[in-house]
Amino acid sequence: MNETQHPLLSVDVSDGSHHRFYSLDEIGNWLSHERAELSWFFEGAPQAGGAISDLRNNYQNNFNHLDQTLSKWRNEPESTQRMQQFYNAFTSAYSSSTTVRSDHPFARIAADISKNAGPAAAAAAFGTLLGIGCTLNFETAKGIIAAVLKQSGIDPQSPNIVSKAIEDLSSSAAADRVRTNAEWDGIAQRAENLLRTTDESFKNQTEKAENDTAEAIGRLQDSVAESIQSIHTTEATYKEQMKLRAPVEYWQEKGRRHADALQKSRRNLIWFAAVGSAALVGSLYVLTTIALDASSKSAADTVIFLKFAAIGAVVTTILFWAGRVLLRIYMSDRHLLSDAEERVAMVMTYLALTNDGKVEASDRALVLAPLFRTASDGIVKDDGPDASLTGVVAKILDLKPGR
User: Fold this and answer.
1) Which residue among 77, 78, 224, 319 sits deepest, i.e. has the most Cβ atoms within 10 Å of its Cβ?
2) pLDDT tens digits, one per residue of 199-235
3) Residue 163 covered by a domain
4) Last residue of a domain, one of 158, 190, 205
5) Which residue range or ranges hold the DUF6161 domain (predicted)?
């Protein structure tokens, strides 16, 4: 019966088991029971050797530590600190996966083996189930085989153990073979799909690469052809420019000279218009004054007026003739300047059309004929006297009587 209604100590260990103790004596009895139930392990582990022997020492140390902690708690039963120390020691002892209680399935299997095969075989079986190695000998081999068989639900003492093992092995091999065949079929199918996909992708990429290459080659050929055509056009333009360079420079220079002459002619014309007008008015005024003075001193005033009127007419004619000559010179310079500029513009336009390839060989004569035509001086010869010796002689002969 429980000494108190509530447990003195409640412990939950890492494997999920729950322990409730109602007195210190109950705790001591539980530890003694565990040690006694695992006596086959303490006895057989040194014979099994290896890591099993180390595990046995670990178990022994845990039990000794729990006994010492419980003894201190017995001396001070009301001490909460002593209870906590025992609690910590208990949970620490069973925190490892290799430290199990006597009612654990692995411990029960090993205990059954101990009854038939001895403690050494039981210790080896216990280590095998926990994944801990041992020294291999006849005794430990029996324990290992028995542990594997019992874990698989086979009684080592059964007469059908061999046939059952063969049957299990055959079933396992058949299942493995079926699984392996299925895996290989899946791998083969995936490989076939991968090869088909890769082949289609390769064909598509190859076709795309061929199309891109052909397109790039076509663009390159077109670019090369355009570049060669541009070079030929530039070369032809350069040759034409070199051929027409001298005429262009000639007409540009001539245009500059005509521009200077035009400015000079304009200045002379303006100066003559101002000075000539003043001179004409002054001359007519002087002639009129002289004629009036002479008529007051002579009775033949009509003859005197006619003489001075004739002189005024001659002076007026000379001034107007000189002004018209200056105007003709001005207009001649202007026409010649326009002609020179038109020829230069014509050459530049011709060169531009040649550079664009828009001028045929048959059109060259139509452009060059006006360029090299003879330029006139722009002066109308009939508006002034002939300054040549032949012209002067012809005028004298025409003025002789009888002509």
Assistant:
1) 319
2) 888 888 888 888 888 888 888 888 888 888 777 767 6
3) no
4) 158
5) 200-384
